[in-house]
Write a structure and sequence with these properties.
Chains: A alpha/beta, B mainly alpha, C mainly alpha
CATH superfamily of one domain in chain A: P-loop containing nucleotide triphosphate hydrolases
Structural class of chain B: mainly alpha
Number of strands of chain B: 0
Distance between the termini of chain B: 45 Å
Helix content of chain B: over 70%
Helix content of chain A: 25-40%
CATH superfamily of chain B: MetI-like
CATH topology of chain B: MetI-like fold
Strand order of the largest sheet of chain A: 6-7-8-3-9-10-11
Number of helices of chain A: 11
CATH architecture of chain B: Orthogonal Bundle
Order of helices and strands of chain B: HHHHHHHHHH
CATH topology of one domain in chain A: Rossmann fold
Largest sheet of chain B: none
Shape of chain B: globular
Distance between the termini of chain A: 43 Å
Structural class of chain A: alpha/beta
Number of helices of chain B: 10
Strand content of chain A: 15-25%
CATH class of one domain in chain A: Alpha Beta
Shape of chain A: globular
Number of strands of chain A: 11
Strand content of chain B: under 5%
Largest sheet of chain A: 7 strands, mixed
Oligomer: heterotrimer
Largest interface: B-C, 56 and 64 residues
CATH class of chain B: Mainly Alpha
Number of domains of chain B: 1
């Protein structure tokens, strides 16, 4: 049971996170000084409610991590947001200045990343790293922050937490370091938790523990969670709803069971069909054709160059996903192949 | 222009735009090299001919950059100095490279006692300030041009050896070498075909910097009075002679060769910088 | 506590072969050429009797190993031989002049170090901005700059043309008496003796040579600091700190602390090289330090002094490396693991 600081008012009327038509471009000059634009995100739609875990899957380069960074306002040149809205708890994040966004990061929106051991400051003791996040956002005293850090370390299941507070990051194993990162993410009672490949690279048994920890944390505190992964197995284990990304577009979205048993988009079908038991994308996935060329995407549906059912109408504007989190796909021919 | 030439034209321009520093550096290097080759043809006077009536003449129409304490034309001497600069830098570089790279390859690949010993020796050499080392050795073994080249060259060996060794070790740990061994390649083939091309990049990027260093050290040695001596038109020796005239106002005797020295060194540095930029484009990016 | 002592002991043990190598080298120095080492040690003006005496004292008619052991034994006792030019012990001569060299190098490198590191960190913060480009340009000029040129050029501009700097002849005006020796640094000793005239003169004479040292040290430090800081800024932990919403000053502190160790390690190497570059400056400015003494001895073939000089410079370099190692040990928790 992870202790919360103050009880949160439960408002389930509106999604906590609403992303609509998010577009991000990479603008750079090549060797011959020509401007080249890679369209990395092309109209991403997603909703995450309190208390639910939304999984975002896709092959490498589909734009999953980029979406997470865009939500947190961490895009750096040459990446630029060129359109779309990001609504968090009723507020439009794209209209907020960086200082205010920075105050929200680590406080109301928190992130857990891949490679936890390298994400910790090598020169600061672990307990202090958790404490300073708390101290910075809540302006508490050093003692209060330290006490809170200790509580968090206990809550995420680190054995002998009092002693381990004084340990250095390099003395932690991958799994333990990830627990520390989770503690750092939860220390300020965030409303939205973004986990970017949190279990990738860890031992299989440790993976399961970390995912369980995440799931229980989210459910107990009614957080909204966005879980990014290339592993369909993780989604099946932990997520409530799932969104499938391809070439910067969420092409299908809905409750996990429905999407996995009755996929509507040709790409989803291809993914689920191609690896029935160990459902993994990216690393072990079979690709039919080359990865999408983000510099030269076709108009309309980005999948049409690989899709066996493509028609001229696919070059027209894509419909939006259905509201309310229902199962839907952004495809003109969702029933084909059922 | 033929199509072939046009393509090369574009490539050169592209490279120059990718790294303007490198391009300028290369231009300087080539310019001095040209001067070195053509010095006897373009120099107005014989560099060691003393005009005894025109000692310490300020730069004028006749002696464009003045004359030194012996009445020799500074311009001609400076132009010929480029020959000595390249004449020392190139053999030194070859020496260091041809000896250092094989040592580094073998030490990194074989490991064992050879590696241990080379490591210890290189560590010990690191402790000496190189200029002082060079001075001491040259003065002890007799002051000649050949000696200077030999000694400075030997000081270059550890630099290349250490660099190549580090690259070999990195390759070894990446499993690249293991795969080659398992595929049944004999040692010499692994070293030559697999290791050498990959390690060479780092070594080549170092070359311009080493040349700059060689030119600087040899000039410094000559300045102190070891190795090359007047009336040889070597920049360091010329600066040595000109130093005593600095306080009395005949600045051109030391400043002109000094300038040539500095520009050539900067040229090498710029070219080295340019190479680094091309080989590691990540250099100028930040997460900010 | 025990771990630290163990680490220090291990470092000392690793230093022993280097020490051995250094001794061996300086020993071989006078035996490199064709000439008889006796001639090199005794000088051209030595009489038959003097030569015989030297041969006996240093056991030069015995096998090489015995000679080396004798040499090592003497060095361990502080006997570095005698200069045939001045007839005084080498060690005394060197120690007397050491403070001047240290003053020059330490002051210059402190200035250059601050300048280079600060600029490098700043350049990394605003990559490809105006400050970055300007400082990279300046660094390019300073990198590999021959001290012979820079020293002479500065003398020309600031002494001859502008008449701002005092003449490059020694550490203090010839007409002013030097202050009583406490530290060996004219400036410090003059201040301690409340001799403001001497202090002013000494300070004035330090400006040009220390500026050269500072420039020559700042350039590589800037370049390397910038590269290190860029690496740190691109690291996973800095990126993560940003996602955690840590304020900019805190992130800058994280960047600085993680850059410090590699900067110190690099700085130590550059500092030892700096002693070499500064040696020429001592000649140009008649500074009266060990390097001027040692370099002059090289020209005059006073090889006992040359041996002692090389030995002393190596000892200084080893000391610099040892100090930087200790500093790193203190700052880096990862260095406390075994096998480093």
């Amino acid at each position: 049971m992870i202790p919360a600081e103050t009880p949160q008012a439960a408002d389930t009327a509106m999604s906590l996170l609403r992303v609509r038509d998010l577009q991000v471009h990479f603008v750079a000059r090549d060797r011959y000084d020509r401007v080249r634009v890679a369209r990395a995100l092309n109209g991403v739609d997603l909703d995450v409610e309190r208390g639910e875990i939304y999984g975002l899957v896709g092959e490498t380069g589909a734009g999953k991590s980029l979406t997470a960074h865009a939500i947190m306002g961490l895009l750096r040149e040459p990446a630029r947001r060129v359109g779309g809205s990001i609504e968090f708890d009723g507020r439009e994040l794209t209209a907020i200045g960086d200082d205010e966004l920075n105050a929200m990061r680590g406080d109301r929106i928190a992130m857990v990343v891949q490679s936890p051991r390298t994400s910790l400051d090598p020169l600061t003791r672990v307990g202090e790293q958790i404490a300073r996040i708390h101290r910075v956002h809540r302006k508490t005293s050093a003692d209060e922050a330290r006490a809170r850090a200790l509580t968090m370390m206990q809550a995420v299941g680190i054995p002998d937490p009092k002693a381990r507070m004084q340990a250095w990051p390099h003395q932690f194993s991958g799994g333990m370091a990830q627990r520390v990162l989770i503690a750092m993410a939860l220390v300020n009672d965030p409303q939205l938790l973004i986990a970017d490949e949190p279990s990738t690279g860890l031992d299989v048994t440790v993976q399961a523990q970390i995912l369980d920890l995440l799931k229980s944390s989210v459910k107990e505190r009614q957080l909204a969670a966005l879980l990014i992964t290339h592993d369909l197995g993780v989604v099946a284990q932990v997520c409530d709803r799932v969104g499938v990304m391809f070439a910067g577009v969420v092409i299908e979205s809905g409750p996990v069971e429905q999407v996995f048993t009755q996929p509507r988009h040709p790409y989803t079908r291809h993914l689920i069909g191609s690896s029935p038991d160990r459902l993994t994308l990216g690393r072990g996935a079979v690709r039919a054709g080359a990865a999408p060329d983000l510099y030269n995407l076709p108009p309309g549906c980005p999948y049409q160059t690989r899709c066996p059912h493509a028609q001229p109408v696919c070059q027209g504007e894509l419909m939006r996903l259905p509201p309310g989190g229902a199962h839907g796909a952004r495809c003109h021919f969702p029933e084909i192949g059922q | 222009m033929s199509v072939h030439a046009q393509v090369w034209h574009l490539r050169v321009i592209a490279l120059a735009r990718a790294s303007p520093t490198g391009a300028v550096g290369l231009a300087i290097m080539l310019g001095f090299a040209l001067v070195a080759l053509l010095a006897p043809l373009i120099a107005p006077y014989d560099p060691v001919k003393p005009f005894t009536d025109h000692v310490l003449v300020e730069p004028d129409a006749r002696f464009l950059l003045g004359t030194d304490g012996n009445g020799m034309d500074v311009l001609s001497r400076t132009l010929h100095g480029a020959r000595y600069a390249y004449g020392i830098a190139i053999p030194v570089l070859l020496f260091g490279f041809l000896i250092g790279v094989p040592i580094g390859l073998y030490a990194g690949f074989r490991g064992g006692w050879f590696d241990e010993i080379t490591l210890r020796v290189m560590d010990a050499l690191r402790v000496f300030p190189s200029i002082i080392l060079a001075l001491a050795i040259v003065s002890a073994t007799g002051q000649s041009l050949a000696n200077v080249v030999l000694v400075i060259g030997m000081l270059d060996v550890p630099v290349f050896a250490r660099l190549v060794r580090a690259e070999v070790l990195a390759l070894r740990s990446s499993g690249f070498v293991e795969a080659a061994i398992n595929a049944g390649n004999p040692t010499w083939r692994i070293v030559l075909v697999h290791l050498f091309p990959n390690c060479i990049r780092g070594a080549m990027a170092q070359m311009p910097i080493r040349m700059a260093w060689a030119v600087r050290v040899s000039a410094t040695l000559a300045f102190i009075g070891v190795g090359i001596q007047a009336p040889t038109p070597e920049w360091g020796a010329m600066i040595r002679q000109g130093a005593e005239y600095m306080v009395s106002g005949e600045w051109w005797v030391a400043i002109v060769p000094g300038f040539a020295l500095v520009i050539l060194i900067i040229g090498f540095s710029m070219f080295g910088d340019g190479l680094e930029e091309l080989l590691d484009p990540r250099r100028n990016t930040s997460s900010r | 506590m025990l771990a630290i002592v163990q680490l220090i002991l291990r470092r000392l043990m690793l230093a022993l072969p280097i020490l051995f190598g250094v001794l061996l080298f300086t020993f071989m120095l006078v035996r490199l050429g064709d000439s008889d080492p006796v001639g090199m040690l005794a000088g051209p003006t030595a009489s038959e009797a003097e030569i015989a005496a030297i041969r006996a004292t240093y056991k030069l008619d015995q096998p090489l190993l015995a000679q080396f052991l004798e040499y090592a034994r003497r060095v361990a006792h502080g006997d570095l031989g005698t200069s045939w030019l001045s007839n005084r012990p080498v060690l005394t001569e060197l120690l007397q002049r050491l403070p001047a060299t240290l003053e020059l190098v330490l002051v210059g490198s402190a200035l250059g170090g601050f300048l280079g590191v600060w600029s490098g960190m700043r350049a990394a913060r605003s990559v490809n901005g105006r400050f970055d480009q300007l400082s990279r340009l300046l660094s390019l000029f300073g990198f590999g700059m021959p001290t012979i040129f820079l020293g002479l050029a500065l003398i020309f501009v600031f002494f001859f043309v502008l008449r701002w700097a005092p003449p490059p002849m020694g550490r203090i005006d010839l007409m002013i008496t030097a202050p009583p020796v406490i530290t060996g640094s004219y400036l410090v000793d003059a201040l301690l003796a409340r001799d403001l005239e001497a202090a002013w003169s000494a300070a004035g004479r330090m400006v040009l040579p220390c500026s050269v040292v500072a420039i020559v040290f700042a350039a590589p430090m800037l370049k390397q600091t910038r590269a290190i800081a860029l690496d740190v800024r691109a690291s996973d932990y800095v990126r993560y700190a940003r996602t955690a919403g840590l304020p900019h000053p805190m992130i800058e502190r994280i960047v600085w602390r993680n850059s410090a160790v590699p900067i110190i390690t690099y700085g130590a190497t550059e500092l030892t090289a700096l002693f070499g570059a500064a040696s020429v400056l001592e000649l140009i400015f008649s500074w009266g330090g060990v390097s001027q003494f040692g370099l002059t001895a090289i020209l005059k073939a006073d090889f006992a002094v040359v041996q002692g000089y090389v030995l002393m410079m190596s000892a200084i370099a080893m000391l610099v490396f040892a100090l930087s190692d200790l500093l790193v040990l203190k700052l880096e928790p990862r260095a406390h693991e075994a096998g480093r």
